[in-house]
Write a structure and sequence with these properties.
Layout lengths: L1 H4 L1 H19 L2 H28 L6 H16 L17 H23 L5 H20 L10 E2 L12 H24 L1 H11 L1 H6 L4 H27 L1 E2 L6 H14 L6 H15 L4 E2 L2 E2 L4 H15 L3 H23 L3 H6 L44
Antiparallel strand pairs: 1-2, 3-4
Helix pairs in contact: 2-7, 3-7, 3-10, 3-11, 3-12, 4-5, 4-6, 4-10, 5-10, 7-8, 7-10, 11-12, 11-14
């Protein structure tokens, strides 16, 4: 109940109420192409923010893990004759069963990526995860027998068919998945396991000296990030209806990183804020004109300018900028309240007097006289007639 009365609790409830009624009042385009797409990209960025913000692992392999889950979903649910080469690949499972298998395999793939890169830090970890992502891209691009090569797979249907047939239903699926993952990760970071991740992020050597297996925890963190990215990959495959190497190329990896930085790497909700901004710029970039210069087909230029502006003005992202502005406004309101107290109104009893600092009696002067017999010792265990001891 205390959380519900807090600023965060009230904002969360208001946001959930708005998101719940959103598809009932908005057009189909805003429900599917904007909101649903933003939540899918936000879940992928949430996996990166979770690993970077609470584990100190800035992974560039999250888009590859999402794409891996999408490929596993296609192999599990499509008929054998639907592959690009006509080979007997596919198990024709129900979409829900295929989604569960795809997410589990993405989690295992994340653990494998973590086992490969767990002992590297900083720029070395960054480059190693990027190498894994690029390697997976070229692997699916050149593999026609299993992954369909550059054509990939088509006609991937979700449990409710194509999203365009039931946009509100697909929207609620994305909303439930995003809400559960967000709440679950918020719970994890407050648990003992999450505190261990944060300790390893701050000082891995000290955590190792305390008996924690740093490498194992980093692998577990990567596996959890793979799980979240896998959910994004499954929803993305249902949203697009297909999967191809273009979904796991280097540009998608950069997109996930940009979304996380735009929203704020230190704030889980920043993943979805950055995704909304990213999707809006992507959709409406062609209609933006500055001094007669059109950004039509220049989306990367516009998003790059926004990225540089955010890094320079608000290194903590849009959520960090809003949080800093709210704290500054709160301090200004507090100062204004203290200045608004009228002394005459206080004297007349109309307004309450401002709280004063608690009065502290001055310390008694030290006396050279010996303490009386039976006097209680000082705080350090000595009486006043005891010989001084060193505190070093």
């Amino acid at each position: 109940m205390i959380w519900l009365r807090s600023r965060e609790g009230l904002a969360t409830l208001a946001g959930l109420a708005i998101l719940t009624i959103y598809p009932l009042v908005m057009p189909r385009f805003w429900v599917l192409s904007i909101a649903s797409n933003a939540m899918i990209l936000g879940i992928a960025a949430l996996s990166l923010i979770f690993m970077a913000g609470y584990g100190g692992m800035v992974s560039l392999a999250q888009a590859a893990l999402a794409g891996f889950a999408a490929y596993m979903l296609a192999l599990a649910t499509l008929e054998p004759s639907t592959t690009a080469t006509g080979s007997a690949i596919g198990f024709a499972l129900p979409s829900i069963a295929g989604a569960v298998i795809a997410v589990i395999l993405a989690t295992l793939a994340g653990a494998l990526f973590g086992a490969i890169s767990a002992r590297s830090y900083g720029i070395y970890f960054l480059m190693l995860t990027l190498a894994l992502a690029v390697g997976f891209f070229f692997f699916v691009l050149q593999n026609y027998e299993v992954f369909g090569g550059h054509i990939g797979f088509a006609k991937i249907l979700g449990p409710t068919g194509q999203p365009r047939e039931n946009p509100a239903v697909f929207y609620y699926m994305c909303l439930v998945a995003a809400a559960l993952l967000y709440v679950g990760l918020r719970y994890v970071v407050r648990s003992q396991l999450g505190l261990t991740f944060q300790g390893i992020r701050d000082n891995p050597r000290r955590m190792s000296a305390l008996g924690y297996r740093v490498g194992v925890h980093r692998v577990v963190l990567f596996a959890m990030g793979g799980f979240v990215a896998g959910v994004s990959g499954v929803l993305g495959a249902w949203y697009r209806g297909n999967i191809s190497p273009g979904v796991v190329d280097i540009s998608r990896t950069i997109d996930v990183l940009i979304i996380a930085v735009l929203g704020g790497l230190g704030y889980p909700i920043g993943a979805f804020v950055g995704a909304v901004v990213f999707v809006l710029i992507d959709v409406f970039a062609s209609s933006i004109k500055i001094f007669g210069f059109s950004f039509d087909e220049r989306f990367n230029t516009l998003i790059g300018l926004g990225f540089v502006l955010i890094v320079l003005v608000a290194p903590n992202g849009l959520v960090g900028l809003a949080d800093r502005a709210w704290q500054s406004a709160g301090r200004r309101r507090g100062r204004a309240t203290r200045r608004a107290v009228d002394p005459l109104a206080v004297e007349a009893g109309i307004a309450p007097a401002p709280e004063a600092a608690p009065f502290k009696s001055p310390a008694p002067p030290e006396s050279d006289a010996p303490a009386p017999e039976g006097a209680p010792p000082d705080i350090d265990g000595r009486t006043r007639d005891s010989p001084p001891t060193s505190r070093l």
